[in-house]
Amino acid sequence: MPPIALTMGDPAGIGGELTLRAWLARTTTPFFVLDDPERLTALAARMKLPVPVRAIGAPSEAAGVFATALPVLPIRLAAPAPPGRPDPANAPAVIASIRQAAELALSGQAGAVVTNPINKAALYQAGFSHPGHTEFLAELTGVPGQEVMMLAAPALRVVPVTVHVSLLAAIARLDTALILRVGRTTAAALRRDFGIARPRLAVAGLNPHAGEQGALGTEDASIVVPAIRALRADGIDVSGPYPPDTMFTDHARAGYDAAICMYHDQALIPLKTLDVRHGVNVTLGLPIVRTSPDHGTAYDIAGTGTADATSLIAALEMAGEIVAQRARG
């Protein structure tokens, strides 16, 4: 398997420290990072982390380097990156890191892409026009509009139908066709990437008590139920809509492989409450494998040496597992 490409993320956030700690753990498929070698060397020294940094000229060199040093495919920063202080001048390097990682995965030089957290506001100032990583990677890989975000942890997998929009906009965007597309993509990914022969999907209702037969809103009956019927007609094992306040209990979770949720927080609150440290963001619907930790840049602790790399390590491990599962076919 080719090495995994790890992006730099926001250089003012905790991504660099997480990268160094992930290499120290060395429990994953070999990876290389697209970053500034001088930045990582200085960061390792400041954090007193014993991580030798070695620049490489191509991903093919990473496997031979990984055991003794962190392989870095150089992308130079335009400005210093003091912890907790994002600088739009470095946005082009952050974007280039993502773009190059996707290109390497598409060409087969990288086995997968794992992305460190970014700061969208800093990127927007540099002309970045996408809501986030997921949509940008869908464009880079030629499948815009087909991307689906899954958050996965050992205890739960969740898929929000609408993602990075306001709650008001999420409700306005929600329709049967969108739920149907997300459900189909999720079922296909559970089979292909997670080796689940007959995936079981549970669909959350939009309203309290899934609408209470129309007493608390008609959207569940008019939008969600038709999507469930169409998924069943496809031969997918799907059930719901379930009241969102009871479908994440221990007993309920035993009955499904993934929960299809109507909006961002409906999906992410239960997952992060159950296991934020091991949560992984997986992008479904791409021709490449992409994962990331399920947290942000954490400017408030950047540079303090207290960042927890568990989620990044879990993302690297899951990327390797998905690549291996796809190879088994």
Describe the structure.
By secondary structure, the chain is of the alpha/beta class. The chain folds into 2 domains: 1-147 and 296-329, 3-Layer(aba) Sandwich (Isopropylmalate Dehydrogenase); 149-285, 3-Layer(aba) Sandwich (Isopropylmalate Dehydrogenase), CATH 3.40.718.10. Helices cover 40% and strands 16% of the residues. It has helices at 15-25, 37-47, 62-66, 91-106, 120-124, 133-140, 167-173, 176-194, 219-233, 250-253, 264-275, 310-328; strands at residues 4-7, 31-35, 53-55, 70-74, 113-114, 148-153, 156-160, 200-204, 237-242, 258-261, 280-284, 290-293. Strands 3-4-2-1-5-12-11-6-7-10-8-9 form a 12-stranded mixed β-sheet, with helices on both faces. Strand 1 (4-7), helix 1 and strand 2 (31-35) form a beta-alpha-beta unit. Helix 8 (176-194) crosses helix 9 (219-233). The longest helix has 19 residues, at 176-194. The chain is globular. The mean pLDDT is 94.
Give a nutshell description of this structure.
40% of the residues lie in helices and 16% in strands. The protein is an alpha/beta fold and 329 residues long.
Secondary-structure blueprint of this entry?
Elements: E1 4-7, H1 15-25, E2 31-35, H2 37-47, E3 53-55, H3 62-66, E4 70-74, H4 91-106, E5 113-114, H5 120-124, H6 133-140, E6 148-153, E7 156-160, H7 167-173, H8 176-194, E8 200-204, H9 219-233, E9 237-242, H10 250-253, E10 258-261, H11 264-275, E11 280-284, E12 290-293, H12 310-328
Parallel strand pairs: 1-2, 1-5, 2-4, 3-4, 5-12, 7-10, 8-9, 8-10
Antiparallel strand pairs: 6-7, 6-11, 11-12
Helix pairs in contact: 8-9
